Amino acid sequence: MDEPDTPESPARGTTPPFADLNDRQREAVEHGLATGGAGPLLVIAGAGSGKTKTLASRVARLVQAGADPNRILLLTFSRRAAGEMAQRVGRVLHRVLGQATTQAPPTFPWAGTFHGVGARLLRDYADRIGLAPNFTILDRADAEDLMGMQRQALGLADKVERFPLKGSCLAIYSRVVNSQQRLDQVLQQSYPWCFGALLELKQLFKAYAEAKHQQHVLDYDDLLLFWSHMAADAAIAADLGQRFDHVLVDEYQDTNKLQAAILRALKPTGRNLTVVGDDAQAIYSFRAAEVRNILDFPAQFDPPARIVTLEQNYRSTQPILAVSNAVIALAKDRHAKDLWSDKASSERPRLVALKDEAAQANWVADDVLRKREEGIKLTRQAVLFRTASHSAPLELELTRRNIPFKKFGGLKFLESTHVKDVLSVLRWAQNPRGRLAGFRVSQLLPGFGPASARRLLDAIEAQPDPLAALKAFKAPPAAAGEWSTLCALLMDLAANSEWPSDLERVVEWYQPHLERLHDDAPVRLADLDQICRIAQGYGNRERFLTELTLDPPNASSDESGVPSLDDDYLILSTIHSAKGQEWQSVHVLNVVDGCIPSDMSTGTSEQIEEERRLLYVAMTRAKQHLALLTPQRYYIRQQHRTGDAHVYATPSRFIPGRVARMFEQVVPAMAASHGLPASTEPQIDVGAKVRGMWD
Ligand SMILES: Nc1ncnc2c1ncn2[C@@H]1O[C@H](COP(=O)(O)OP(=O)(O)OP(=O)(O)O)[C@@H](O)[C@H]1O
What we know:
It holds the Pfam family UvrD_C. It is built from 26 helices and 17 strands. By secondary structure, the chain is an alpha/beta fold. The structure holds adenosine-5'-triphosphate. The site of adenosine-5'-triphosphate has 22 residues, from α2.
């Protein structure tokens, strides 16, 4: 990502603190300070208008005015965003407090995601809400497996009419929880084809909830659900509310109803509650985020929240902002904001028409190298796309030309078998009642099959002391030796946890199994070294397991390792993972109908509006150079049996003629004819299609 242009950096030590804020930003930062307490505040900020900077400055200002960093709850969208925010606040505080840069800035122990903070609070209050304090958290894949087991056990998998698959069942369940709607409403609105299965789904979800309870496990959604139920208890709510003097929330446009309810319970009058967001950047409705949360925020309090609107964009040049504004101006329902920039430039954004995705990959690689020659490092350039698979041809081209890149979004480091195996051992030691972890780990032993695993897990379930049951278990004779080694390891991990050496002990135990089970063991071992390195950044085992499950490196947008300082690599990212970032130069791939909007998301006008906002988010990441690419022919993976695996595309509906004219239109080495880009090859082989009719 781009190196932040941080006006708050200590190098500018001579500027008085907060002098670089504009009047509106300062208004938000100072809100309520003069009167010794603040009513609710909503900062509605356009893209690149210093929303994150303002929030960081407000936190610093609160600390300067005497607030205790341990009593500030700072909720961000990702763990990475929380880390960045804490660093920014630290930099401002250094200046404000006149500290030496070598002095460590204050830490904010309660800066994190809703899910991460929820997990910690639930542990703190576990004994008061009937929850085992050693609960472990299921990632999505494990939750799906557990749902699948219940689906099987209830005989739903064998029904004559096809019952939704485990992934769909979990998605429905998750939507019900996060949107706080009834199951029948969710089915009607979002999954009409499953409506006939209403009663069975209810039965399934009940069994799923019961199984989680038995095994002392929670899924992601439970972290919010349990938190909101806990906050509904008056005594706990009061206790929770007074733990935090200030609550500040970033990216509020992407919160869901459950999260809004949690905040209301924490700060019912809205006192000392600050939320910041941009309704034009709401891109998470598929996770039941509710853009109405931000639109309706002010009116839920009496007196209503103060609204501060930030309209000066500091990121992009005026021509980039003009085309981005033109794209979002066509949106239906939005909080009107007139974004402006004083960064003049004679360079217009480019709209590039290309023959196909291969030509697109070539053109982008050329352009990226050209920009590097002009002095823009690769890390300050990004290529963005709607769907992770859209970058495949470009990845090949970059590899061919030896251009290093890092991809954000869509990578699945933590879902690889060997990493899951090792984490499962830790999870099992943490919570011996967790069936999924136990099922997986026990079967790593030679001679230990699914039937023995089930027998073992049933024995553990039946005993009040799970470790005693583990010890007493009679393993199959072929596995007896390995079983006693594993047992000793688990007992030891349960009794004496030392971090991060716990993980190293597990890897040591696992290595011979890895070598027996996988031909490419050395490569996989390197991943395990990587995870041991990552582990060093966490205070203890429980924190590591919780946070890694909630916000895994690489599966969301973090990097799995810290690249060395002189590493230069191009950023490839899904638009979702590019949220909150900025780069000098941005290319957006496949700006054609079918890709943006994605043909999976054109069912309702709300979906189309969200796709429009996605394109807006992508375009507003650019500081100086922006290019939208429109390949005329692109590859589709799921195609009709008789298809040729390609479709012909029209430029995205979000760039109609009058918006397109604001761009510099580029048709590389092809003379345009009849409004279509010229091509050296026929675009459709009509003859072949006619002949094909008789095949
Ligand atoms: N008052 C200011 N003076 C100079 N630069 C500023 C000012 N406010 C913000 N910036 C710069 O503008 C850029 C965008 O700021 P920031 O990332 O805080 O915006 P944002 O509103 O969170 O963006 P988005 O919502 O689009 O992700 C950053 O490079 C930031 O340093």
